[in-house]
Design goal:
The chain has 429 residues and is α/β, with parallel strands linked by helices. Helix content is 32%, strand content 22%.
Length: 429
Amino acid sequence: MTTRRSFLGRAAAPAVVYKFVKGAPALHAAAADMRFGFIGVGIRGMFLLEEFQKIGVKPVIAADVYDGHLTRAKEVTKDAIATTRDYRAVLDRKDIDAVVIATPDHWHKQMMLDALAAGKHVYLEKPMAWSIEQCLEIARAVESSKQKVQIGSGAGNSPESEKAREIVASGALGQVNHVRLENNRNNLEGAWVYAVPPDASPRTIDWQRFVGPSPQRDFDANVFFRWRCWWEYSGGVATDLYVHMLTQLHQVMNVEAARSVVAQGGIYRWKDGRTVPDFMSSLYEYPGFLASLSVNLGNAQAGRSMTVYGSKGTLLVGGRNTLVHTEEAVDRDVQRYGTNAWPAAMRQAYFAAKGNAARPVLAKPKEIVVTSGPSHQAAFVQSLVDGKPLRETAWEGHCAAGSAHLANVAYRAGRRMSWDAKTGEIKEG
């Protein structure tokens, strides 16, 4: 795995640094008048509640099926927020401008459709939904509504991704034929083995509301707090981590959705009763190039990165506001290996005709530093207040989540699978 450190380690001289400045927009004072409801205030939902509160909107009401989450919501808002176990109570509030949905995946579709029917703008946490069919249903519903919906996969709309897209579009990398993306972890938290609160019980958790449209099963606190580990509620590493990578890939490469994918994986590290794989590697086909994605929950050494390989150069998008661009060596067509079996005099004449040119050396990497822009959440508020374009539309969310789901379909079928993003049709081959 190539990392930013190994890229820069090849350079004998300091890297050339460029600046790409994108300042955060000043939110209009009207943001303070925006009233938000929150459906799901668990780990991610709590982060979103705190983030939106920092931006300046007013949190009005939160829904969750675990009492501890609701208690924490009151703490972070200094008791300014109402709480409920029933998400419909949030949608019934006439004084709510927008809702933030951050629940397990199997609830996304119904909550989204209900929110649109209630006339609410929506920030929907990724993945868009539990299946390709559900993602497409949401995308079509949003298209026919008047509400603004932003999907919460911010990796594809970061300053790094924007700069990378600019570099690829400029032709500086030449013909791109491969993009590689990885996300690797090796700890309990990274594998979704989250701590279970000591008060977790059928008294503090509304189990039936959690299960909802999924098959019924007996109460299990581990399932409730570690729901990403089971197919009934999640798409595992693909819909959690592939979605981030696919969103970024689609923006950087200016493509809409994958054409086909093959995928393999399994449960190697975390044999704790989960049904989704803890390692998955997939090869996606896009127009003109292939993309290899992998997630490993059993080794963290390679970390997280995106690398774009072109005929003229390579671009590493490693996060932390930094990209590394390394140009390919120029081929001077001085073939030492290819002429090794020639007679000595003939070979010497060949080199003389080539001007006795030495082999080309690798170009020095250039480090490109970008400046952080507004958060994904701030951009959503900006869109509501000033009509700015959404960072990630429902259709873009469908294309990213659908491509991730396609990898799961291929993995479980043991076949190469293709799809049509516009119709949702899936087929072998």
